Amino acid sequence: MTGFLAVLRREVQLARVGGGDLMTLLLFFVLVGALMPFAIGPDKALLSRIAPGVVWVSALLALLLGLDRLFRSDFEDGSLRAFHNATISLEAIVLAKLVAFWLTVILPLLIAVPVHALLLGMNGDILLRTLVSLGIGTPGLLALGAIGAAVTVSLRHGGLIGPVLILPLAVPVLIFGIGAVSPPPAPGADRVALLFLSALSLVLVAIAPFVAGLALRLSED
Amino acid sequence: MANTETARPLRWHERLAHPGQFLAWSRHLLWPLALLGALLFAWGLWLSLFASPDDYQMGATVRIMYIHVPNAWLSQLTYGVMAVSAIGTLVWRHPMADVSMKAAAPLGAVFTVLALFTGALWGRPTWGTFWEWDGRMTSTLVLLFIYLGLIALWQAFDDKLRAARLVAVVTLVGAINIPVIKFSVDWWNTLHQPASVFVEGGPRMPMSILMPLLVMTGAFTVLFLLLHTVSMRTEVMARKLSALERRRALEPGK
């Protein structure tokens, strides 16, 4: 446990030191959402209907942009090779990194969601549902993103290939995430969607450390 | 030409695994497969276009099914071939597994595009719309994106051996989509027609419609086998070529 916490603390400290990166991500998140009224038109009713979807897509895009920092700097300066000799397994280290990423990147994004609520005209109930569904769904998205980041870590110009691999697989999470927020087509359908979303996130978080660990090992030798 | 410097004759699985051996025996498959495919297509197309009845609801447009369904099945079968090859690469380090995986990806992408395209053409007169976001169409579109992403991933790496293993990992992660496509018409009761061939109690189709469907499926499957073999041969030859070029580049200047 101490090893896990040590890695967690290292990641949080590194994130705090490289703080400008986080501000940029937050700004990107808010800007994408703010762009929608210009692209779609200021029709309040329409905007508030699509607001949860806009927030989810903006969160997904901001997450994908920030994923590079998960493994790349450790790969480049050799820390990843050092992790092979750690007392805890590489998979546990990956999990610690995921937890740290969620705390240092996703949590600030969630705190910024009320700004979207203001810009896009979400009422309090919808805002709360969106926050809950994001809170449950983002670990799953993060887990998928970690797999993409691990697979592309050895590419010099990784660029968009990681996100491009991940986006098709993120579709179910998106479908259930929105299903948990929007007015349900049948009574209780939103609760079903929330349960499915939780299941997806749990499964993804469970398997991602192993898949990402395998991909990291394959990228090393 | 063939450098069989082994002291004893090769066993059957060694003939499969060695790229040079593969080139030698796969050459004899090509013409038989091509002829068989041509025959099956001729028979299948005659059955589909002339010797089968119109559907009582859809009329003549049902004949699009004889192209649409085989392509859809093959797009999933190809992914299955890729997934098995991926396991071969990761678990057994089989020398031909990653060649098979790389060769299958563009084929699968084309089958998926054809399935979506013919499905859209069929949907317009039948349901009034080219596209709906129902379970099966969405998951097939996701399959197409996965194929294209895998092809892009192959291109992104310089080191092809590392690429093979990493693409294998992503292929296996994406394999979850295949059961989703298969069962999507059972789970979500929306637009696309539910399963009518592989159901309990046998196919829900009369033989007059089932027969052309099966023949066309056979024809497309033989086509896939032929193209896959050709593509694998090309890949093996391309690798030999680049190895020779590299060796030549290392020699003192000519």
Description:
- The complex is a heterodimer of chains A (221) and B (254).
- Chain A has one domain (2-220).
- Chain A is 84% helix and 0% strand.
- Chain A has 9 helices and no strands.
- In chain A, helix 1 (2-17) crosses helix 6 and helix 3 packs parallel to helix 7.
- By secondary structure, chain B is mostly helical.
- Chain B has a single domain, classed as Four Helix Bundle (Hemerythrin (Met), subunit A) (Up-down Bundle).
- Chain B contains 8 helices and no strands.
- Chain B has helices at 12-17, 19-49, 65-92, 97-127, 135-156, 160-174, 177-187, 207-250.
- The longest helix of chain B has 44 residues, at 207-250.
- The radius of gyration of chain B is 21 Å and the shape is globular.
- The chains are: A mainly alpha (221), B mainly alpha (254).
- At the A-B interface, helix 8 and helix 9 of A face helix 5 and helix 6 of B.
What is the topological layout?
The complex is a heterodimer of chains A (221) and B (254).
Chain A lengths: L1 H16 L1 H22 L3 H23 L1 H10 L1 H5 L6 H31 L3 H28 L9 H19 L9 H32 L1
Helix pairs in contact in A: 1-6, 2-3, 2-6, 3-6, 3-7, 3-8, 6-7, 6-9, 7-8, 7-9, 8-9
Chain B lengths: L11 H6 L1 H31 L15 H28 L4 H31 L7 H22 L3 H15 L2 H11 L19 H44 L4
Helix pairs in contact in B: 2-8, 3-4, 3-6, 3-8, 4-5, 4-8, 5-6, 5-7
Question: What is the helical fraction of chain A, as a range of percent?
Answer: over 70%
The number of distinct structural domains of chain A comes to 1
Overall shape of chain B = globular
Q: How many β-strand runs of chain A? A: 0
Q: What number is the mean pLDDT of chain B?
A: 87
Give the helix tally of chain B: 8
Instruction: Tell me the total number of β-strands of chain B.
Output: 0
Report on the biggest sheet of chain A.
Answer: none
User: What best-fitting shape of chain A do the alpha-carbon axes yield?
Assistant: globular
Tell me the fraction of residues in β-strands of chain A, as a range: under 5%
Please report the two chains with the greatest interface, counting residues with C-beta closer than 8 angstroms to the partner's C-beta: A-B, 18 and 20 residues
Biggest beta sheet summary of chain B: none
Structural class of chain B: mainly alpha
Rg of chain A is 18 Å
Cα-to-Cα separation, first versus last residue of chain A: 28 Å
The class by helix and strand makeup of chain A works out as mainly alpha
Low-confidence stretches of chain A are none
What pattern of helices and strands is seen along the backbone of chain B?
HHHHHHHH
- Low-confidence parts of chain B, pLDDT < 50 over ≥5 residues? none
Number of helices of chain A: 9
Strand content of chain B: under 5%
